[in-house]
Amino acid sequence: MTTDAAARRKERRRAVEAAVADIRAIERDCGVTPDGLARMKERLLDLAAQADLFPAEDFPPPDGDVDFPANIYRIAEDDDHRFALYVQSARGALDTPAHNHTTWAVIAGIRGDELNRFYERTADGGVAETGRRVVRQGTAVAFLPDELHSIHVEAGDRVVNFHMYGLALDRLHEREYFRDDDRSWRNFPAQEGIIEARSG
Q1: Pairing between strand 127-135 and 94-95?
Q2: Which of 112, 172, 181, 198 lies at 20 to 30 Å from 163 by C-alpha?
Q3: Nearest residue to 58 (alpha-carbon basis) of 77, 73, 46
Q4: Is the domain covering 3-196 a CATH 2.40.160.100 domain?
């Protein structure tokens, strides 16, 4: 590892630890509330503004033809699996169904454009879109545990962003997603294949 890369890892670790500590304090002081999430979102945007600490070469997307065109890198997680922060690195043609998280979630842009669509449940058991926002450098979105969204990246686009959750993705076994084809709700399995990237 070059001196520059080692220095970047050290500075990245310091910046991530400071951001996670602040977000822990926000949850403690404000709870899982719209105001608390707004404050978490602003703090994660501060970290995303330090994009030089998260260069493409440290967080590459998957190579070749893969089912899920994004790598998810774990850069922070408490011992009890709370306050989990990831870098998601995608290379286009990424679409998820409408889903919840069963924990709070914040997404903040580092580079590239990720479209987020927002939904509410309808009386007939389906979903209706209520809005959308493009997450890019300088923008973020946040969700309470039962709120619904989907994410979309255009083919050929390269997107790197933060995803942070109140509980680690591989511990979220009760998430739900909506299937448009048969208008049913299904279990969204806990995330697999997370890449360990906590700086040592």
Answers
A1: unpaired
A2: 181
A3: 73
A4: no
